[in-house]
Amino acid sequence: MVEMIQIYWPQFLLAFGTYIVATASPGPATLAIMGTAMRAGRSAGLSLAAGVISGSVFWGSLAAFGLGGLLARFEGAFEIMRLLGGCYLLWLAWKSFQSARKGLHADAAVAGFNKRETGHGTFYRRGLAIHLTNPKAVLSWAAIFTLALPAEAPAILPVVILLGCFLLGLVIFGGYALVFSTPVMVGVYARAKSWIETALGGLFTAAGLRLLITD
Question: Where in the cell is it found (predicted)?
């Protein structure tokens, strides 16, 4: 393992650097984690982050074995993903706008949108759906392995890259959940709930429409 790292460290730097830029940059997944952590607490934020990470590992596993590139070239599947992803983001936008309009009290906000949404499984599935319906995730993973894997790379190299990206995902997405569920951030959310939810709704709307209207 040490010898492989010494030989392929440029590939590791390229792969992990690309992954960090792709995941740490503001996007639907990070916005959802931030909003959920402030709105429903640390546990809910971590559950949603776990769903996002699971979706990321799924696409990464396909890309590691060459199936991600095949899917990216299959126009029908890609179009379905794009439409589903856009509609799902618009649904998240509607939920945020609905929450902003209702103007719930801070203690109710910590409980989530409603009682049906307090389970960890609900937040996990939401995070999973966000990432599984994001066609950009497929392209990002395809880019990572296309750029980082030389033709003579050993079969274990993509597995090591996938594992490293998984650990980075835990730190990045989990970090968002931990930071935005702190008392300071929850207090900010309680004081500016309507503004924050409106902003999140606008960002989700922009992201959803961009997916739906982009060829």
Answer: Cell membrane
